[in-house]
Amino acid sequence: MTSKWAYGVVDDILQESLDKLQLKYLDLYLIHTPLSIVNGDYEGPWRRFEEAREKGLVRSIGVSNFTIEDLDKLAKVARVKPAVNQINLHPYNYSSNIKLLEYHRQHGIVTEAYGSLAPITTFPGGPVDAALDKPAQRLRISRAQVIFLWLRAKGIVIVTTSSKKERLEEYIQAGDLPPLTLEEVAAIDVAGADGPPLSLASFGSKEGLCAVMRKPWWRLAMFLFLLGLWLIYRGNISRFMPSLACARK
Ligand SMILES: NC(=O)c1ccc[n+]([C@@H]2O[C@H](COP(=O)([O-])OP(=O)(O)OC[C@H]3O[C@@H](n4cnc5c(N)ncnc54)[C@H](OP(=O)(O)O)[C@@H]3O)[C@@H](O)[C@H]2O)c1
Fold it and tell me: For the chain, which residues make up each domain, given as ranges?
């Protein structure tokens, strides 16, 4: 049983969660985001987390959406290190998170992944689809289950959700499925590193935008755009568009 603190007095918010859930303690309590840290004060809230753990109100304490820099800052003031970092992780942003995952491994921090079904929910039709379909056909399972096996192969804890009973059952069954082969895991990694397909969703997410900006055609378009601006600035536009040049006089 996990809950998160985002703002307000830690003790009050934690007690509110316990009351709502009608529990005496939580298994895991997380700082929701580094944005919850005001004026760089990692120590203040973390000390309250450590006290809550000492009092037995939470068994483990951790963080969410923390970068390596955030984790380093927290490490300087922490008496109890974070047990978990819950992050947005899926095949399309895996390659940009390798350093963070390595940091977790070195410091004994468990990686929890949310948003892992992004290839199905946010970026359908991308290069990862084919890499998911191969094992899905071999094991006769769904794409979502293949993503869960991919996370499991990397030792990452899955945090997911569904409003549908069938999907929840499918998710639970994933725990009993055989593992993906090393080649299948690698094929998902490679396809994901290629970035998500171009769509409006790509522009709405950091990894989508970064992937678009890595595409050669995007770089060419930006180069031509900047060249156009420069030509206008230098007044050379008159060579190409005399009417505009007249208007400027
Ligand atoms: N720490 C944080 O900042 C943070 C942020 C976001 C979420 N979370 C946590 O992560 C949990 C998971 O949330 P998420 O949104 O990240 O989940 P996710 O696992 O990426 O996706 C779950 C969503 O996928 C849909 N879905 C599943 N299979 C599908 C299919 N075959 N086709 C179309 N849609 C499909 C489900 O819709 P249906 O309901 O229709 O099945 C559900 O809404 C949340 O409950 C929350 O606890 C944490």
Answer: 1-82
